[in-house]
Specification:
CATH class: Alpha Beta
CATH superfamily: Ribokinase
Number of helices: 9
Strand content: 15-25%
Largest sheet: 6 strands, mixed
CATH architecture: 3-Layer(aba) Sandwich
Oligomer: single chain
Shape: globular
Number of strands: 11
Radius of gyration: 17 Å
């Protein structure tokens, strides 16, 4: 059985971060280990949430794992709460990466051109340094711009603008950056990526649903990492993640009883497994 470790926070209510990564990756038949970076009562859409910082537990966990000799097929990071946590995650990469271990970084820190509360430009620059150590990087448009210090072009940025951002991410040292949440010039909604080794751009989009929600990036990154670990090539894994996330959003949009803080990804897990089997 393949094994992934995901390093990010736990929001007890909200369907994001580890409460998304665990069920999605496990449903794909991949063992899912975790390093919780913090525990929140809810995600940050809610007011008055509780927050327990677990930074001081991260290195002791790593020390124990090194003693046990644990190895992983993939290391996947999401929301990290501080520069210190980023530095610790670099130690995880150095200690746990084997010859065939894939490192996936989702630099979850911004939306709509603005950093999340508590982050600054120094954090964004340090996140770029973490992305440089990854095999695959999955920023949205906002995160790509903030890491590069570029002006935010808006959510409707053209393919040419996105490709230019990708070239700059590669120049900064990223091996295979993929910008997600892109409205492609043909009107579909998906991703554009750039393979630094081949110089090839890849893209794919599906029908756009007029609905935005917390946690969709986590759904996407989790499905992608699981598919990649099962042996799918990067493009196929990205396509699977795109189709699954779009289905989860569509399901929520069409459900009159859906919650207003997350998507119905659970209802679409059978579709995810179908995608895995068919691709």
């Amino acid at each position: 059985m393949k094994r992934i470790v995901s390093i990010q926070d736990i929001s007890c209510v909200g369907k994001c971060s580890l409460t998304v990564a665990l069920p999605i990756i496990s449903s794909m038949g991949v063992e899912t280990s975790i390093v919780p970076t913090a525990v929140l009562s809810t995600h940050t859409q809610f007011k008055g949430f509780t927050f327990r910082d677990l930074t001081d537990d991260m290195l002791p966990i790593l020390d124990h794992w090194k003693k046990e000799g644990f190895k992983f097929d993939a290391i996947y990071t999401g929301y990290l709460g501080s520069i210190r946590q980023i530095d610790i995650v670099k130690e995880y990469f150095d200690a746990l990466k084997g010859k065939n271990t894939a490192i996936v970084v989702d630099p979850a820190m911004a939306d709509n051109g603005k950093l999340y509360v508590g982050f600054d430009e120094a954090f964004a620059k340090e996140m770029l340094n973490l992305c440089v150590k990854a095999d695959i990087t999955l920023p949205n448009i906002s995160e790509a711009c903030l890491m590069l210090g570029e002006e935010y072009p808006g959510e409707e940025a053209s393919d040419d603008v996105i490709c230019d951002l990708l070239k700059k991410l590669v120049k900064a040292g990223c091996k295979f950056p993929v910008i997600t949440g892109v409205t492609l010039d043909n009107g579909t909604f998906g991703f554009i990526g750039l393979n630094s080794e081949s110089g090839e751009f890849i893209s794919y989009g599906t029908t756009k649903v007029p609905y935005k929600s917390h946690g969709t990036g986590d759904v996407y990154a989790s499905a992608f990492t699981g598919a990649l670990t099962l042996g799918k090539d990067v493009y196929t894994a990205l396509k699977i993640a795109t189709d699954f996330t779009a289905a989860s959003i569509r399901n929520t949009y069409e459900d009159p009883d859906s919650v207003n803080y997350a998507v119905n990804f659970e209802a679409e897990i059978p579709y995810l497994l179908k995608l895995i089997n068919e691709n």
